[in-house]
């Protein structure tokens, strides 16, 4: 009952803000509500406050004791939603599939897959020395085990 009420309030808040989307939601022991959101344009503190108020202001603390944490997906958190990829175009990603690992620049993100591009040094086909070659991988979302944005300083 309590979880359904919170889910409905969260869904209504996200409907009011279509630029935001849910990454994770749980209610743990002692009614500890945890909500993780992301946004097409990132997430500001005000966005977390909007979601928090939409839930908290519609629950009665006299009726149900609870704690509420609303946070944005962290910079080092794995990407879990297709919409997150579109926001990270032209950034370096490290992607694991069941059979391989890739690190490259995210050049495109469609509804079915992503494309990573990277450069490698390979031996020349003829003669001595090496040449820089551009490689590309198209990876279906369903094949991605984990994808993270690589933070460069």
From TrEMBL:
Keywords: Cytoplasm, Ribosome biogenesis. GO terms for biological process: ribosomal small subunit biogenesis. Residues 19-75 form the Ribosome maturation factor RimP N-terminal domain. Pfam families: DUF150_C (PF17384), RimP_N (PF02576). It is found in: Cytoplasm. PANTHER family: RIBOSOME MATURATION FACTOR RIMP. Residues 79-153 form the Ribosome maturation factor RimP C-terminal domain. Belongs to the RimP family. This is Ribosome maturation factor RimP. Required for maturation of 30S ribosomal subunits. It comes from the Bacteria.
């Amino acid at each position: 009952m309590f979880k359904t009420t919170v889910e409905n309030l969260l869904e209504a808040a996200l409907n009011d803000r279509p630029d935001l989307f849910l990454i994770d939601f749980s209610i743990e022991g002692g009614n500890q509500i945890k909500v993780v959101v992301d946004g097409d344009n990132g997430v500001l503190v005000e966005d977390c406050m909007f979601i928090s108020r939409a839930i908290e202001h519609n629950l009665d603390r006299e009726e149900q004791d609870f704690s509420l944490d609303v946070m944005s997906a962290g910079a080092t958190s794995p990407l879990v939603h297709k919409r997150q990829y579109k926001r990270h175009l032209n950034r370096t990603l490290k992607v694991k599939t069941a059979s391989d690992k890739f690190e490259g620049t995210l050049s495109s993100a469609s509804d079915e897959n992503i494309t990573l591009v990277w450069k490698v040094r390979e031996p020349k086909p003829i003669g001595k020395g090496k040449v820089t070659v551009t490689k590309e991988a198209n990876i279906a979302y369903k094949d991605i085990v984990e994808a993270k944005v690589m933070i460069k300083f």
